[in-house]
Amino acid sequence: MSRLISDVLMVAAVVGGPVLLAVLYVYGMRATRQKDNQPHSRDVTERATKDLYEESDAERENREAAAEGSENVIDVIERKTGTSA
Predict the structure, then answer these.
(1) What CA–CA distances, in Å, run from 71 to 59, 68, 84?
(2) Is there a contact between 78 and 66 (Cβ–Cβ < 8 Å)?
(3) Helix (H) or strand (E) holding 84
(4) Distance between CA atoms of 78 and 8, rounded to whole angstroms?
């Protein structure tokens, strides 16, 4: 009896796992397509992305300006290579 239950659970895992994954994948695709069809949702996403990039650029510029007068070795290297952490 225990062997039968074990076999049934193994078949359920082997068959059910990919089926569940496929269902979730299709659900995700449909949800994304519905969101893309709504101009308002797309505009909100684009605006949020643009704001995020602007904040990131401002933060990077602030870090570069702060490191500009520093004599720390790492700051000098970052200035010369154009990189800042």
Answers:
(1) 21, 8, 15
(2) no
(3) none
(4) 60
pLDDT digits (tens, 9 = 90+) for 2-58: 899 999 999 999 999 999 999 999 999 998 888 777 778 778 888 999 999 999 989
Q: What is the pTM of this model?
A: 0.45
Q: How far is CA 5 from CA 1, 11, 14, 18, 20, in A?
A: 6, 10, 14, 20, 21
Query: Cα 63 vs. chain centroid, distance in angstroms?
Result: 24
Q: What is the pLDDT of residue 77?
A: 75
- What is the DSSP code string of 21-80? HHHHHHHHHHHHHHHHT-HHHHHHHHHHHHHHHHHHHHHHHHHHHHHHT---HHHHHHHH
